[in-house]
Amino acid sequence: MHPTAADAASKFDPSRAGEYAQQSRIALAGYDACHELSACMLAASLGAGRTAQVLVAGAGGTAQEIVCAARLEPAWRFTAVDPSRPMLDLAMARLAEVGLASCTQAVQGVVEDLPAMPLYDAATLIGVLHHLPGDDAKLGILKAIAARLKPGAPLILAGNYRAYASEPLLLAAWGERWRMQGASADEVEAKLGKILQGADPPASEEAVHALLAEAGFAAPQRFFGSLFWGAWMARKRGG
């Protein structure tokens, strides 16, 4: 396992994995909408009703990207990769609960662990990039995904961007979002402190574009935003 991926995965221990479904929906206003639109963007890109092999990097947790995509496109098949065993187990349990486990292959590890062939028709990387420290780790996972995609294949990339402290009003609104869900003032302060110390989002949308370009993707199109969160679709160059 790549050391940076191991460091990121270590944060998602069994206790954090267990609360992930609830906490992620508070942290990201529009969580379900983002995942639904991600599936719609992929279907619009690939063509409705076709078969496809989809790589889902960082799939652990709710498996929401697979749930939405599989319900929209039942002929798609998924390879779910995550370095955190508790998070991957949680994802597969969710898929079993909704009757979708049979369409998904689970792989504990990182994208680099996957074989070079066959190539995938599409990929997703949702809620992962801001957990990887430094641009080298971010670029590494994007390059690994690009190497396993067919030319012209779409990637859905979604996550936080911009340094949190650089946008004090958005950060304060994020705190109010937690307060709206019943957190006390002390709990809000603790959550914001943990956020400020525990993640390393790309510095700007331009930085996201630059990472994608260097990894081998064409200019992305943003289709969703919520406070610090953005979601883009980009195609692997060459198609």
Automatic annotation (TrEMBL):
Keyword field contains Transferase: yes
Protein name: Class I SAM-dependent methyltransferase
Organism: Cupriavidus basilensis
InterPro entries, per the entry: Methyltransf_12, SAM-dependent_MTases_sf
Domain spans labelled Methyltransferase type: 58-154
Keyword Methyltransferase attributed: yes
A Pfam entry, by short name: Methyltransf_12
One GO term (biological process): methylation
SUPFAM superfamilies: S-adenosyl-L-methionine-dependent methyltransferases
UniProt keyword annotations, A-Z: Methyltransferase, Transferase
GO molecular function term, any single one: methyltransferase activity
CDD domains per record: AdoMet_MTases
Top-level lineage group: Bacteria
